[in-house]
Amino acid sequence: MKFTAQQIAGILEGDVVGNPDAEVSKLSKIEEGFDGSLTFLANPKYTSYIYSTKASITIVNRSFQPEDDINTTLIKVDDAYLAFSKILEFYNAVKLNKAGVEQPSYISDSAKYGEGVYVGAFSYIGDNVMLGRNVKVFPSAYIGDNVTIGDDTIVFSGAKIYSETIIGNHCIINSGAIVGADGFGFAPNENGGYNKIPQTGNVIIEDYVDIGAATTIDRATLGSTIIRQGVKLDNQIQIAHNVEIGKNTVIAAQTGIAGSTKIGENCQIGGQVGIAGHIVIGNNVKIQAQSGIARNIKDDEILQGSPAIALSDYNKSYVHFKNLPKIVKKINDLEKK
To answer: For domain 3-95, is the CATH number 3.30.365.10?
Structure first.
């Protein structure tokens, strides 16, 4: 799909400087621009590229004044970075704007779905499933029995949504994510083995949640595993049974959260963090990458290390740790004397 500079300016409430009929159908970095592509200039250190870019259209701040000849058509806006982000959202919406049911796919007779739904080929929609308006289920996805998915949610190829899961509006479930698999529940028996504890709960995902590729969220043993509104989960995260994650918390890749832990709102958790089970983490907590959390954490703490301690204490201790060989040598020299 092609767009002219005039059309893009209308979307962004910007002004065209150059050819209003210039057309684009692709997006590019300013240093890699090519004919027919749209780019932007927001960071001053990339300014030199605007004089050499081959992009047909470039979004710039209103304050930008070229100091040499340029070949690209400009669209001047209040904030070039935000404007380009808006175009990315628009472009993505157009790209994903599919509707209808492709074949072969299976949709149970008892399933219900709203207007604008898309079900890709080789997908499975189980009994009593309810899909809201404009839900997109891409090819080879699995939606188990009694699942409810709200309006404008996207389930990408290969994602698996187990039975009884409830997903809100405007969510994104990326490829390979598994929502609602059994939690890791086993009880030792008299023979030295383990008996499986049935996992009879479900997963509840509220509105505007993003779930990364290959992330797994286990169903509760009893009750619900809950991901609150606005949570953003990176790829390859493990969330165990009965965990609750508060509003607008973000978690980076390869983090693991053990069962029944409660995480507060607006937390920021780095990659490869390990969080023990049955603890409570407060609101606005920041945890640095590769930390290990094994205790309750109060609101607003910033932590690093394993076991994690206050970031300021960790940094002070690390200074001494780096100097440890020198300190040991000094002690040994003193002992010899």
So the answer is: no
